[in-house]
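## Example pair
The file below holds two records. Each record gives the amino-acid sequence first, followed by its structure token line.
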Amino acid sequence: MAAIPLWIARLRLALDSKFQRALRILRHYVMRIIHEEQKRQCEEQQLLAKPKTLIASMVAAAENDRLETGSSKASLSPTELFDEVSLSMVAGFETTSAALSWFFFLMSKHPDVQAKIKDELLRHGLTSDAILTPEDLDELVYVECVMKEILRYAPIAAAIVRQATRDDVINDIIVKKGDIFLIATQNMHRDSRYWQIDPMKFFPERFLDEDKYPTPYAYMPFGGGHRTCIGQDLALFEFKIAITRLMQRIIIEDAGNEANNSGGFMQRITCFPKHVAIRVYMDSNAKLPA
């Protein structure tokens, strides 16, 4: 079945009142963030200082280009600036959402991994009412391994597209400048040539020992090179906080024969598990804040 023509897809979105309302809300908040950053840089005269955030860098780059060219139009228009800032936000939140879906599914299948996460939290004194700090998160080595293994076993991007910038020959295959490559991420993540421990097995401990340092580009859940995912750091930070807070307070179980918890893949912007049916219980050791 042929894909829907792009012009039809755009027309459908243009006529979708809910989508347009959501877009207006997003545009309102993103443009407010941009204008506040522009005002801050103007007041503090920080155009020449090194930006400390991604948004500050984008705003400064646009303004510096405008000043250098002497043009009233910067290289990044307000619309382009909106697109870039929106992308960084969506990339961070969408990837975290997909990763958490896989976390719930995989934890329901691997209660032993849940138990090890909870043990690590207790060893560091991170009870359910503890305040998390960046230093606490940095100490959670096993949680980090679980995150890496989820993103290896079930990558949130099914494939990565790249374009050749010059002619080349790879394994006797002639590549022309402009050729498009489709890199199947999951195939790379499960190729036994690049992993010491069985790559078909969900095993977070691989990142403690044999597979601690994977072959370059054999593991790239967020892509690689200078075009790596712009929301990578935000996504990983959110993911680690979410896993920690969840494992401080709940227990995840497979729903058994009551429903379909077989997993599978569903492709949207990112890859989600298709069939998930779990039970979630409050951990009897958890103390919720008053």
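Second record, same layout:
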Amino acid sequence: MSDQAIERTITADTPDGILPAQVPSDIWAYAKAFLLIGRPALRFLWRDGDRWLDVQLSREGAHGPLGAAPDRVVVRVERVEMPRGITVRELDVLTLVALGLTNSGVSERLGTAARTVSSQLERLLEKLGQSSRGGLAALAVDLGLLRLPLPGGVPDEGGIGIAELELAVHRRLDRGYLPIRTQVMTRLPIRLGIVVPDHSSSDGEQTLNGALLAVDEINQQGGIGGRLIEPIHEIVSTFDWADIRAALHRLFAADVDAIISSYVSAEHPQFMEEIAEYGKPFLHTATFEADVRRAEQEPWKFGMIFQTCASETYYGAGMLRLLDKLERTGGWAARSRTIVPLEMPSQSMHVATPLFRDQAVAAGWAVTESIATPVGGTDWDAVMETVAAADPDVILIANYVDSELIAFHEAFLRRGVPALVYGIYSPSNPGFVRELGPRADGVIWSTTTGTYDDELGSRFRAQYRAKFRQDPGWSIAGAVYDQVRMLAAAWSSVDARNTADVVRYLRRWPYRGVNGVYYFGETGQAPKLYPDTTPDAALSQAHLVYQIQAGDHTLLDPEPFGDISAFEVPSWLDPGAESVK
């Protein structure tokens, strides 16, 4: 073997053929047998020809309820010189003394006289500066001055680690074997808090499942530096601050290292204050520009809070961009050039802002007063009568509760308004198409955090379906999956308990997830959005616009991700509004 140290992490099932051949094959057998004994680490010496090898084994793996990954052992092998001029025979004696053998027991194993053993012990006491055989034994175990295979063969019983390992490698451990101390030290898990909304079972499932999928994948690979991720989730009533605050404090009490969520925080300004006081990273998809600005203006207080998508302020501009492309390509023609906004009374769903209205006017559109549509308190048929009176070309509906959007669409179809329907986020939820069936066809919707229909996105969707036997949708499941993966990337590089280092890593290094590229920059609290805030699609998330067609989601915009020519005129539009496409 060369002078270079060799280190490998293996499991009991690692094929021998892929292990470094310069390490004696028997050492790999001992390393695999090490996983059978309840030891966190073990060190011994191995004779390879006329050279000594220092072998160090340390356990890396899962124990108890978090044991998603197989136990692994880190094996380090290095050529060394024997300290203090200890000879081969003296090391044999030292090893057997550490086993607790008397001089006669040692001599019997080695086939020498007891007087010879006594002389060798005297030399060892002098070389190692000890005054008793007990001191020699303790020093040998402490420094790993122990030889394997054991001199004289397999021991009659275990006790110290090398004896247990020798029994294990020769399969002599009793079936009911238990070490003297059964508590093997393992690294504490990295605890991840997950806040799950309860207003939509489908939305909540995607939030939790997307996170758990990422956690399971990471744990199956051994976690982060041998530490598993322990998910701790709290299902909360989205609009009940007392319930949410109690859930947060349970996560705080669990000493979680970070918290992730969808958009629960947008409904409660106090949420950020609670997180800031706790002081650990919080990643969310609340699409609320006011909170982003607040964090950017007070980084010393809110700098650990990241919105992992662009804000609601870009939805209106994205819709105007799409309408312009449809008109320019002849895919659709407006009649009245009127837009009616329907808004859920939530700060994060206020998309018909003064800026949007100015942009619309500049593009030749009239925007009516917004119609408030409170969750659980909207008479959608009455709303549609008001909408119909405005004779709009486009209905912009901002509501992230999928059941509300379903109720809207049913009322819309009953009333028969000849307008495009442009939704925000909610149609990404599988429940929308599942509930409406073919009646959902024609709806246009957009998101600032959509799952890409590329190799990474397709693989994620396949993994999600395989694990949960359902479709992940096109937004939130991928978003929270990316949140976990983003944090894991940071935790793999810096100490998970050091919030400042984790935050610094998240800012500095772009992360390519299934929902695009997350890059916050040195001062940002939300990723860049293509094409709204940057022309660089390789360093941002795309503002994706879809149309539901035959139950599938067809990506229309922006290029190069979507194809505007794929637009289909909805069946409910009056033929007179259609183009000659």
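Notes on the second record: The chain has three domains: 6-169, 190-311+455-534, 313-447+550-577. Confidence is low (pLDDT under 50) at residues 62-68, 576-581.
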